[in-house]
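Comment thread on ticket #2218

A.B. wrote:
> Attaching the input chain for the structure job we discussed in standup.
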Amino acid sequence: MDDDMDDDMDRQRPTTTPPDGNGHDSARGAKRSPRRLSLGALSGLLAGYAALAVAELVAAVVRPESGPVVAVGGAAIDRTPSAVKDWAIRQFGTNDKLVLQLGILVVLCGVGLVLGVLASRRRRIGSLGVLAFGAVGALAATSRPDSTGAVDALPSVAGAVAGAALLYWLIGLLERRTAPAADATEPSAQADYGWDRRAFVVAATAAAAASTGATVAGRALSGSQTRSAAASRTDVTIPPPSSEAAPTPRGAALRIKGITPYVTPNDDFYRVDTALVVPKVDATTWKLRIHGKGVTRERTLSFDDLLKMPLVERTITLTCVSNEVGGPYIGNARWIGVPLAELLRKCGVRPPSEGGPADQLVSRSVDGMTLGTPVEDVMDGRDAMLAVGMNGEPLPFVHGFPVRMLVPGLYGYVSACKWIRDIELTTFDAYDTYWVKRDWAQRAPVKTQSRIDTPKPFARPAAGTVMVAGVAWAQHRGIDKVEVRVDNGPWEEARLAAEDTRDTWRQWSYEWKAAKGGHRLTVRATDRTGETQTERRTRTIPDGASGRHSVVVTVE
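C.D. wrote:
> Ran it. Output below, let me know if you need it in another format.
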């Protein structure tokens, strides 16, 4: 028969054409109906929502980091080229993780729509597609560095099963069951006859409500775990340090409008890491293991064990290797912690200069991050520490509570492990840490740098005396001189603020007699070894950016 004869026979039969082996109607109208495709897409969205809700509920029981959004996001971060990560940090700053998570959700919505449309044509295949995406989430969760094993696959598996079952059920409600109404003459009515509208609406509404309930329950469970960790932080009383930091010297903090504060408030301190979910670690259950080559007395310490040790207080400036020339990823804070070199010596560790077999200290975070630090730098007399306090309070969660590592003079990616749980002594030849595997350098001392804080780029100051000011840093070497140049003129020495320690940044200022017109201001610093900041611009990869910061202004 030709197509016209088929259509005539369909109109003569009031009964429903049975679905074929794939669970879809064999009649052409069902395939072509825009209404059916739209309802299929809606079913896909609801199935995706249900899958995520159930997965997050199960993840709240297993552990929040095993949820599919976090697991897939973490896997995406791990596999993203370093240049792309660096671009994301430049473009989005500390919001880069939020942008990634929103992007994942947008993609999942798109996938849900596509699978729903596919299911409206091939019911079983659409549901199998949901299961396939669940398998991706399970694989991502179990392959993460912080994975606890097969149990991490449960959230994605449970969510996928729930989503696939819901999609299969909703599409089933769209199957034709009854004849069209007597007055149904429109082609769309002929194509969509018999689907149980009321049953579909009730089912879809119930699914949405149940998914919302699962989401709320999951967040409540996660919140209870967070509250436990928060309570442990609230209960912390940091003992007075046995070695206090010297008071900030008079004149170290300049009172100039627009200059960065000498001490960075905790809420303003930069955060650059790969954790999509900030670990909320309970200090009462936290442990730190110290082991590896040259460790003659392996130790496992609790948080209380650390607090019972002699503590030191120091003001130290930290810098992220992703900081571009003139960038914001640097901060200065007053830290309290346990001297790391002394602790290592108690474990029998000797630096390579004293014949120790290990030249790399690998620190591991609770989220699976690994950082590698030269043992010689940790034990050469600088104030390397396991920090427990920051600016007069326990570490904030975003900055590593309950314990993080600090080593003055090194970029954070080779020294500043947050949420630390393990220290292993090994060699650079034997082990490559997370960032080294991604083309960053094994060793990364902070480069001599300076920044103009005021005036801002494209500012329009009035002619006359304009105060130019900013900060300069060369941790563990110290800043000896800062110079400013206007356009292509000579370098003029700026006034340096008093120095706190060589491990902190140093503020500077320069009184500029500004003439009307457009001008470029450039700054350079010289550290205490005599090295002057280079004008050669380099990228942040592999060991930090170099070059001189400049701003363009128009004097009116």
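A.B. wrote:
> Thanks. Noting for the ticket: The radius of gyration is 31 Å.
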